[in-house]
Design brief:
The structure holds 2 protein chains of 2 kinds. Chain A is an all-alpha fold. Helices cover 59% and strands 3% of the residues of chain A. Chain A is built from 4 helices and 2 strands, in the order ααβαβα. A 3-stranded antiparallel sheet of chain B has the order 1-3-2. The chains are: A mainly alpha, B mainly alpha. The interface between A and B is large, with 33 and 46 residues.
């Protein structure tokens, strides 16, 4: 057993003042350096993989956008809601029974997700036409999910 | 007459075995303390989920110390065995001074057995599992620089180590006391059980009390160290973080930390496992169990048994007072260094970082982040720092686990 090992077994009352100083300086220095080193390394790695993912996803999105552009030339009438005739040009078409607050919340959420720099416009908001309510769907899901 | 004698003897026996005869003044003081803590938990709602079981454990052990007693072996002579209806022949024998004794094992108290999860370092990592399921590392991934603040707030731990050594604690005890500055209950308990188990009661109670007092301790330090201009900085909105990044994060962190600092692996490993449960989205029911049922059960066991380590004889000592003072010091230093590094980042970023988020680098999730938010809003009611402060806040959890790994290894 070497002396530094022994030092951890004696009580600190037995340590001289200089020994206490050395012991604590050792811990403080190691602590600072290791904690900062590990977390700085983490920062580097997070940044790095963030960049990689962003690039990869950017490329994927570009491909998607291209596809979308091609497909948007032939509008899908079935999925687009019918615009009422007397709608003011920029207001989204909204199903009856959806309050203005809900419209505002949905628009805000969309704008947050895409960022305000990209000119996003909510074209229409309509209730989904599923027969079951959301709660009923949740129930069915819960009971049919495999164990 | 015989009946009356029997009755008197029975009453005498009951009296002698009651607390009135076996408890000493320290126990009564601790009963008082535990009732005050119960009041704080119930009426003032200071971290009631922890303080209530801790206080009740404290109450129980001081009323009935045997509830924490370790199992032991009782030596009985043949006559004693006969009197207690114990089969002398079937027990192992010990011979002392020519007298043969039967070794009759006695069982430990209830809380002794539950305490093994604390003593063996099982509960704290399990709590971390639940915390992992509830933690969103998104703000940290969006702004990785906040890890610096999470590291800076750990400086208090090591400075307190220095103070504790000079106040006469051994290096191992000093390490356990310093970790209070990490403001992370499970980490503090984990480190203390490994380094200085005899101080567990005082350290755990100091750590949880200060965590409960975050909203009172931190704001004066934050205000003293920052200017009005710095406090009113509005930070840019964080970028959205993709699901893939969130899934990769726990895996990468655990690989990195477990390789470089294996001592931190049980805590960080469980934290990241829990987080992967949540982010992967494919094991919903496990994630729910870990963050609700499992975590609640462990909290009950952990709280009660940690409270039960605070028996009067252990707790009412000079070192408890020193620990409470050093713990407060550690906590204040952690907050101060977080804010100071926040100021450095404010300068380096050209005024884009609000230094108030630095104080959230002490873990205490999410209380410390809420404090940053509140202090920021006092200057500028339209300022929302909460999400920005969550970055350093969750970084603080990783930071204190890393600091714990360092202490376990070096001390």
């Amino acid at each position: 057993m070497n002396i530094s090992n022994l030092a951890s077994f004696v009580t600190s009352a037995d340590l001289s003042l200089s020994e206490k100083g050395i012991e604590s300086a050792k811990v403080i220095l190691t602590g600072f350096v290791v904690v900062f080193a590990v977390l700085l390394l983490l920062i580097l790695i997070i940044k790095l993989y963030g960049l990689i993912i962003e690039k990869a996803q950017g490329a994927a999105e570009n491909r998607k956008k291209k596809k979308l552009k091609e497909s948007s030339e032939v509008p899908k009438t079935s999925s687009a809601p019918v615009q009422p005739a007397k709608v003011v040009a920029k207001a989204p078409s909204v199903d009856s029974g959806i309050s203005d607050e809900v419209v505002a919340v949905i628009s805000a959420a969309v704008s947050t997700m895409y960022g305000s720099s990209q000119g996003v416009r909510v074209k229409s908001i309509k209730k989904s036409d599923t027969e079951r309510s959301a709660w009923a769907n949740a129930g069915v899901l819960e009971n049919t999910r495999p164990f | 007459m015989q009946i009356i004698n029997g009755f008197v003897e029975a009453i005498q026996g009951l009296f002698l075995s009651s607390g009135l005869c076996s408890l000493n003044w320290q126990n009564y003081v601790m009963i008082g303390v535990s009732i005050v803590l119960l009041y704080l938990a119930i009426k003032k709602q200071y971290e009631p989920l922890l303080l209530l079981p801790i206080a009740f454990g404290m109450l129980l052990v001081n009323l009935y110390p045997a509830i924490m007693a370790a199992p032991s072996v009782e030596l009985l002579t043949e006559q004693q065995c006969a009197a207690q209806n114990i089969d002398f022949a079937s027990h192992a024998k010990t011979v002392i001074d020519g007298v043969t004794y039967a070794e009759n094992p006695t069982y430990g108290g209830l809380l002794y057995y539950l305490y093994q999860g604390v003593k063996l370092g099982i509960y704290p990592p399990l709590i971390f599992l639940g915390i992992g399921c509830m933690t969103d590392f998104g703000p940290l991934i969006a702004n990785p620089k906040s890890l610096i603040l999470g590291a800076a707030a750990q400086i208090g731990i090591f400075i307190t180590f220095f103070g504790a050594i000079f106040l006469g604690f051994t290096p191992a005890e000093s390490g356990a006391i310093g970790i209070i500055g990490g403001a992370d209950g499970p980490t503090a308990i984990y480190v203390t059980t490994k380094l200085a188990p005899h101080l567990l009661g005082s350290i755990a109670i100091a750590a949880y009390s200060y965590m409960a007092l975050v909203p009172i301790i931190q704001p004066p330090i934050m205000k003293a160290l920052t200017t009005k201009k710095e406090r009113s900085v509005v930070m840019e909105q964080l970028r959205p973080v993709s699901k893939l990044e969130k899934i990769m994060f726990p895996v990468i962190v655990v690989i990195l930390i477990a390789i470089f600092l294996p001592d931190a692996a049980p805590l960080v490993g469980m934290l990241m496992l829990g987080n992967l449960f949540k982010e992967s989205g494919v094991v919903d029911r496990i994630a729910k169990a870990a963050q609700n049922e499992l975590m609640n059960i462990i909290t009950i066991f952990l709280g009660t048994t940690v409270g039960a380590t605070a028996s009067g004889q252990n707790f009412l000592t000079l070192s408890t007072i020193k620990i409470i003072i050093l713990g407060l010091f550690a906590f204040c230093m952690g907050t101060a260094f977080g804010v100071i590094f926040g100021k450095i980042m404010y300068k380096l970023s050209g005024g884009k970082v609000n230094p108030l988020i630095g104080s959230a680098g002490v873990s205490a999730v999410p209380m410390a982040a809420r404090v940053s938010q509140r202090v920021g809003q006092q200057e500028n009611p339209g300022n929302f720092l909460l999400m920005h402060a969550m970055g350093p806040n969750v970084a603080g959890v990783i930071g204190s686990a890393v600091a714990a790994g360092v202490l376990l290894n070096v001390v």
